[in-house]
């Protein structure tokens, strides 16, 4: 299976980067073809410009500025999002990726006023997330990233299939042991993806 791994952490020596490397390595070990997309390394421009917005609904004109990313998304059979959670949301670069690449005609189409997915070719979805917050604080805040992954993205990709959701909460108080345990958990999950 061809798996697109989206990563959005700018620090090379970070735990988030270690999780990304583990994700890519374990998927490869499982025999998947991995398209490792490090948005910072690739210098992805997350800004939805005025021109982008003017042509937003004009398919295929809307995809011209992000054509290579659209092609990668369309080729994917699996999707893994590997990112930290900042202020109970995705980093701006990842949010911008969704705004600029998941376009009408690419990820969905409006048919008689109803949204129809164009991502049914993606058979599996996973998320590897790190939170500074505890599970309770994330829950109390509504945990928007979890809802986006498990409800919104799942509905666009395949609403009846389970989602692999892995989260290391309370990074503010983590230990080398908790990080190692979660890293191993990610490796195991990606080998079974």
From TrEMBL:
Assigned keywords, A-Z: Oxidoreductase
GO MF term (any one): NAD(P)H dehydrogenase (quinone) activity
Superkingdom of the organism of origin: Bacteria
Flavodoxin-like fold domain sequence ranges: 1-141
InterPro entries: Flavodoxin_fold, Flavoprotein-like_sf, NAD(P)H_dehydrogenase_qn
Name by which UniProt lists this protein: Putative NADPH-quinone reductase
Family assignment from sequence similarity: Belongs to the NAD(P)H dehydrogenase (quinone) family.
SUPFAM superfamilies assigned to the protein according to its UniProt record, in alphabetical order: Flavoproteins (SSF52218)
Keyword Oxidoreductase assigned: yes
Presence of keyword Cell division: no
One Pfam match: Flavodoxin_2
Cellular compartments per GO CC: cytosol
């Amino acid at each position: 299976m061809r798996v697109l791994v989206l990563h959005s952490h700018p620090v090379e020596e970070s735990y988030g980067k270690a999780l990304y490397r583990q994700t890519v390595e374990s998927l490869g070990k499982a025999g998947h073809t991995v398209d490792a997309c490090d948005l910072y390394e690739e210098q992805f421009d997350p800004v939805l410009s005025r021109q982008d917005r003017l042509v937003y609904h004009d398919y295929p004109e809307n995809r011209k500025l992000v054509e290579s990313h659209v092609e990668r998304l369309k080729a994917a059979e699996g999707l893994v999002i590997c990112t930290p959670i900042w202020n109970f949301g995705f980093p701006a670069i990842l949010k911008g990726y969704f705004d600029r690449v998941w376009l009408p005609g690419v990820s969905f189409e409006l048919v008689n006023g109803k949204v129809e997915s164009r991502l049914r070719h993606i058979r599996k979805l996973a998320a590897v997330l790190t939170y500074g917050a505890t599970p309770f604080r994330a829950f109390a805040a509504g945990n928007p990233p979890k809802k986006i992954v498990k409800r919104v993205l799942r509905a666009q990709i395949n609403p009846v299939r389970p989602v692999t959701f892995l989260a290391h909460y309370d990074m503010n108080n983590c230990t080398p042991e908790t990080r190692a345990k979660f890293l191993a958990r990610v490796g195991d999950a990606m080998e079974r993806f």
